[in-house]
Amino acid sequence: MTGIWGKLCSLFLRKHTNAPPRSTKDTNRGFLVFHHTGEVIRAEHLLRNAGFIVEVKGPPPELRTGCDMVLLFELVRQPKIMALLAKANLVPERAVPVSGTLLEPVALFQTRDFGQWFMVRAANMKITLDKANGTIVNISGGGCPDVPWLAMQLVGRRILDVEDPLTEGQTLCAYALQKAFEEARRLCHG
Amino acid sequence: MPWLICGTVPDEHFELVHTKWHLDGDTLRTEEGSTPEIAVHRGTPALLATAILACTALEVELPEALLVGDTGQGKGSRRLYAELANGLKGASLSGVTFHYLYPDIDAHNRVLMAMEERDPRPLLVADAGFMYVAKMSGYATSYDMFTPDVGELAFLADEKSPHPFYTRGFLLAEEKDIPRLVARAYGHDNAARCLLIKGSTDHIYLGGTFKGCVTEPSVPAMEAIGGTGDIITGLVTALLMRGLALEHAAMAAAHVGRLLAKLVCPTPATQVAELLPHIPSALRIFLASDLGHDYVLNDMSQGKTSSSMENDS
Fold first, then answer.
1. What is the spatial distance between Cα B5 and Cα B127, in angstroms, rounded to a whole number?
2. How close A56 gets to chain B, by Cα (Å)?
3. Exposure string (b/e) for B142-170, b if CB count within 10 Å is 16 or more?
4. Which residue of B has its CA nearest to A179?
5. Interface membership of A63 toward B (CB under 8 Å)
6. Is it the case that residue A16 has pLDDT exceeding 50?
7. Terminus of chain A with fewer CB atoms < 10 Å: N or C?
8. B165: contact with A, CB 8 A cutoff
């Protein structure tokens, strides 16, 4: 891991590359609205594992209630998607054709080198690891109630030994933490 | 009149409780001892622990806290919102600090309406999830103090963003951008009356006007430590309870936070509980300084509470 850090500047930005390809025009897309962000997270995981192209976006203003995400999908796949979700007891409140621009999640990382440690930031969440053994030494930022909970579960453990934050995370802050976590784990893998 | 701290505890089974707490090492306990104790790691318990330590050092009455268990589902937060909107009718409050709560616009608006109806209206401080929903709601100007970092300031400045997760240029925001972002946040009515913007340099604004910045001592490791922002908000709370004007409380909290870092010399692996025991010392050092002397004595001797400063500004 030290070799990687020799190549890194103390501060750099990297575009997130794991987003699904934008192979579908937005006019052919719809979005699924769920009651809670935790359901969006579970639905995204389920649908991606089943091979569907889905993306998390911010809802249009008229559908915002607080901590919000919607799931963008290809309209042509709607029947299969709804059937799969129903099987998993994940019933969206509604499915809406996209008629305007949806908000894009933050897709940049910021990495900071602290010598023995490095910190990765995604949106408002930061995760800091010990370079020597990949131990998560701190999690900071955020404002949703699952952040302190996730920090309690993750801090003090090796990043390669723990489950993803989204396994138990429920909110946009958890989603941002997942992004930072994935980048930190990628850096650990070298 | 008491000050109320509102937030969540990372335990789904922790029932809603409104009481005073005291700090025993790194554990919060209620005075009557009937409520489960809380280990202080980060989040609202860290804010409350800081406020208790600072209030003790400043010789002010300890705050009350309205706490509930919530690990992200939002159920606990909604119970707390409902209690604030409907259940505290009899109690007068000098101020309220809102913290880690699940953002819910409708519930927020009910809480804010209940606060606005109070006579006297309490000072309102918001950080973390509640600051997010306060901005989302479009009623940010109803608040007296927000404590964002530079990225969160970019969120306040982005009139289209409902959450930092969707903020344009969130990670690209730098300290040189602060004046522009502040102007935009105030221009779109997305800022509280006073902003304490945390960063490698802390910036304080009141009503959109720059009031000062705090740069030294600088300990970069503090950025990585979960809970350092909670400490700053806890300090602001205690200093407002002591009667400091908004911008003086913000400046003082920024100074004390930096003195605390200098005392502890933390690494990025330091935990917030390791910082807490040094808060009284950091406060005492600040109060013994010319600036601390000026802020505390002048504000008190002139009877310049934060509310009265509003009329001055």
1. 11
2. 11
3. bbbbbbbbbbbbbbbbbeebbbbbbbebb
4. B165
5. no
6. no
7. C
8. yes
pLDDT for B300 equals 58
Distance from CA of A75 to the nearest CA of B (A): 24
User: CA separation (Å) from A176 to B72, B163, B164, B176?
Assistant: 14, 11, 9, 25
Q: Kindly report the backbone phi and psi dihedral angles of residue A121, in degrees, each rounded to the nearest multiple of 5, phi listed first.
A: -120, 135
CA torsion A81-A82-A85-A86 (nearest 10°) is -150
Cβ-defined contact of A114 to B225 (cutoff 8 Å): no
Whether residue B29 contacts residue B37, with contact meaning beta carbons closer than 8 Å, is answered with yes
Residue B306 pLDDT exceeds 60: no
- Alpha-carbon span B195 to B166, nearest angstrom: 21
Structure tokens, A96: 């809406």
Q: Which of B71, B130, B153, B160 to mutate to test the interface with A (most CBs of A within 10 A)?
A: B71
- Whether this model's ipTM surpasses 0.85 comes out as yes
In terms of CA atoms, which chain B residue is nearest residue A145? B72
Residues on chain A touching B162 (C-beta within 8 angstroms): 58, 61, 64, 68, 103
Residues 115-134 of A with CB under 8 A from B: 116-117, 119, 121-124, 126, 128, 130
Report how far residue A187's alpha carbon sits from residue A2's, in angstroms, rounded to the nearest whole number.
Answer: 10
Mean pLDDT, rounded, for B51-60: 96
**Residue B308 predicted with pLDDT over 50:** no
Which residue on chain A is closest to B127 by alpha carbon? A143
CATH (residue range B3-312): 3.40.1190.20
Say if residue B172's pLDDT is above 80. no
pLDDT, tens only, B216-272: 999 999 999 999 999 999 999 999 999 999 999 999 999 999 999 999 999 999 999
- Rounded to whole angstroms, the Cα distance separating B7 from B98 reads 6
A143 touches chain B (CB under 8 A): yes
Could you tell me the pTM of the whole model? 0.87
